[in-house]
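Appendix B. Worked example

We walk through a single record from start to finish. Start with the input: the chain for TIGR01548 family HAD-type hydrolase, Fischerella muscicola CCMEE 5323, length 258.
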Amino acid sequence: MNTIVIFDIDGVVRDVSGSYRRAITDTVEHFTGEAYRPTPVDIDQLKSEGIWNNDWEASQELIYRYFEAQGQPREQLRLDYKNIVAFFQARYRGTDPENFTGYICDEPLLLSPSYLEQLTLAGIAWGFFSGATRASANYVLQGRLGLQSPVLVAMEDAPGKPDPTGLFATVRLLENNIDKSAIIIYLGDTVADMYTVEKARNLQPEKTWIGVGVLPPHVQETAARRDAYAQTLRQAGAAIVLNNVQELTPAKIQQLCY
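Next comes the structure step. The output line below is what the pipeline stores for this chain.
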């Protein structure tokens, strides 16, 4: 039986603790008048709710919650979502419309092209489904990893996770050359990623869906935090939780599937 492996990008392929997450903290701080700068734990707690995969929406929600804690109902706040997105993008992407100059330029990579070559040599099909914009995703996949036209479903292509529409679309693109009864593994670093697999399983029970959790680097700084985050991913449905995506070797994939 064939196997398809689909990767989330942020926190799995690249470390975004100093980029996307830094942009969240900058944005929330700016729109709360410098009164509140969320910690990494604050952001993780929000994302553990499983519905804040989009970092623009997560930023807005943290701003709303800050003001609600000050006794101001969100209905009375006049937050302009477009302004929030524009500020965030100026930090993350940079202000040059032609080139990336922001925090995105400094993201450490978490996998290598040779790892993907190992999967290909083992006959494992692979692709990417991410809530990142297509430009941001291709910056890392094509620009930095040197992949040639990788299978990618990005923010513009499907509803946000945990809606599994984008996961189904990625599978369809990868199924063109293989057995339609393939086992599908999705690797992600958030509760929303694991919920996406669960929803896919409920909607397409004829297929075998396996969620694999990956611990993003920022939660591995202390054992207590790492273990708590791993437990959160398992409770959300992860079959296993890895410290790094490249631990999912062809041999480990075989163990998972058979």
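Two observations about the output. The chain has a mean pLDDT of 95. The two ends are 10 Å apart (CA to CA).
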